[in-house]
Model the fold of this input.
Amino acid sequence: MIYKILIVEDDKDLSTMYKIKFEKEWFEVLIADNWLDAVTLLTEFKPNVILLDIMMPSMDWFETLRVIRNLAPSLSMKIIMFSNLDSKEDINKCMKLWADAYLLKANTTPKDAVLKALELIESTKILMDGFKIESEIRDAIKVCPHCLNEINIDLKLYK
Done:
């Protein structure tokens, strides 16, 4: 199966390098270099994974992450935050705001990004005639992207 990834990165050299690696691993790849293109492509392209740079010109990553999560075409879409911000506070904020993973650019190779994307895609299993659930519950407490209140998520699937 060919997976789809949307790379949201303003550094053309970096996005090209990652695009080449993902294509070699049989991903269909699109690149957006700004938040508006990212949101537009998200609804048209419907990627399995988004590799989302945090620090981009004229882009509030908090708001972009919120909009992307609201427009997510399916619950199985994964978001990997991609940045050189390495404080625990930044990483925790990303993870509480619905990111599925956080990769530090300085420590990540294109191969590492591919492996993380595949790991996240494979963590979603199809059960009970098409119901999708996470095989692992990473963190049961999330933060609402609108009001910033903590919420608990409990899902039960009935047929």
